[in-house]
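Re: the 158-residue chain
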Amino acid sequence: MKSFVAIVLTGIVSAGCTTSAVQPDTRSDEIEQRLMSAAGDIAEAVAKLAIVEQSARGVHAQAITPAQLPVDLQLRVSLDYQGDIEPLLNQLANTLGYRLEIYGRRRAMTPVHILADDRAVGLILADADYQSSWRCDVFVIADQRVIELRYHRNRPSA
């Protein structure tokens, strides 16, 4: 009888230690769907904000990709230029029918070297901006037909 009681007690104790089957939480799937939807809405809002900011402030020439080039910046030219950035930008602006606006004070010559064979003007502007980025920035405001050359106040530290 003692062994029977011991077996019954062991069975009761071990039954109390087992866990019930875990039910899948359908609420977590709903929450995950809502989070994904919210993330999509945020991405759309950020893209719209970027469009507004770019139209208000112009586009940094290095940020222009071939797929985003405005039609007039897709004009293909060939050139071999080595010298200061200002005459290059002035000539490209005249070729496009754009206006060149210069901001800040030029402290020294800003050398660029462009060797382009049948390249889009927008990509040439991006290349010139990259080469001169330690002294100035080139911005393109296509809807106003303006190329801006903005000299840095101080030379940025390396």
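The chain has a mean pLDDT of 80.
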